[in-house]
Amino acid sequence: MMLRICLRKNIPYARPLFTESFYRLLSTRPERKLQDKVALITGGASGIGRAAATTFINNGAKVIIADIDQQHGRETVKELGPNATFVTCDVTKESDISSAVDFAVSEYKQLDIMYNNAGIPCKTPPSIVDLDLESFDKVMDINVRGVMVGIKHAARVMIPRGTGSILCTASVTGVIGGMAQHTYSVSKFAVIGIVKSLASELCRHGIRINCISPIAIPTPFVMNEMNQIYPHLESERLVEIVRNVGVLKGANCEPSDVANAALYLASDDARYVNGHNLVVDGGFTSFKSLEFPAPNQVQ
């Protein structure tokens, strides 16, 4: 042990640092990074939102799940226990988001974390010449406007307190082009831009704002899309296709990985992280290989 080594070898040590480390070593209680915090998660009834709610609660937070899906929302709250609450919320309606934020303050006297996670996929044709502007507007209404409204009302109650953490779900499709239909990709590029723009204002009030860009994960959100593209394939095969997109050998990206990223950004561990897009993709967007043929393959 550290104590035995220090005494036996007469190694000098800093007493405060040593004492802190010693008691942390002896403690059997896991660290609860969000103890007594209050979080509101839009789109929290399933997938990444649900995983984040679970992780936040396990770390001491009280969580309000705001979702348009009442059935799954109530089922999720029942499974998560007394520290979870459900409110119906359509993020295309500013009044719904405002009411959800007001509920958090009324119920718990504060809102510490706002996680703008709600979003929809894009069902428009792949070519710009076939762009359906009605579908475009619908995606932007939820994926972009819904995020802006969530930030607006979270800031409304966080600014007077001079503290808070705002998170948004972006995507690797907003990091590099060509990974999704234009409409969806543009909506996620916009989320990353929103975060960077608003960080410039919110930092003056002690509020941090960040986003997370995950690679494709076999959540209900993704699997519904895959079922439409490959209706003839079994679900196990669809999961395999999604996971094969990854480049990090020996690991698959799961909702829990994104939830852990959200936990980090929401907690004091990231107290000086602001305006950041945390990419959770195993390195997928970090490189592109030049697939030159081997010398013995070229005539």
What can be said about the biggest beta sheet? 7 strands, parallel
What is the string of SSEs from the N terminus onward?
HHEHEHEHEHEHEHHHE
Q: What is the helix fraction of residues, given as a range? A: 40-55%
Q: First CA to last CA: what distance?
A: 63 Å
Radius of gyration: 22 Å
Q: How many extended strands?
A: 7
Tell me what you see in this structure.
Strands 3-2-1-4-5-6-7 form a seven-stranded parallel β-sheet, sandwiched between helices. Helix 7 links the parallel strand 5 and strand 6. The N terminus is likely disordered. It is built from ten helices and seven strands. Helix 6 packs parallel to helix 7. It is globular, with a radius of gyration of 22 Å. The longest helix is centred in the middle third of the chain and has 26 residues. Helix content is 45%, strand content 13%. It is α/β, with parallel strands linked by helices and 299 residues long.
Fill in the keyword field for this structure.
single chain, 299 residues, alpha/beta, seven-stranded parallel beta sheet, 7 strands, 45% helix, 13% strand, globular, disordered N terminus
List the helices and strands and how they pair.
Blueprint: H1 2-9, H2 15-26, E1 38-42, H3 47-58, E2 62-67, H4 70-80, E3 84-88, H5 94-108, E4 113-116, H6 133-158, E5 164-169, H7 182-202, E6 207-214, H8 220-229, H9 235-243, H10 255-266, E7 277-280
Parallel strand pairs: 1-2, 1-4, 2-3, 4-5, 5-6, 6-7
Helix pairs in contact: 3-10, 5-6, 6-7
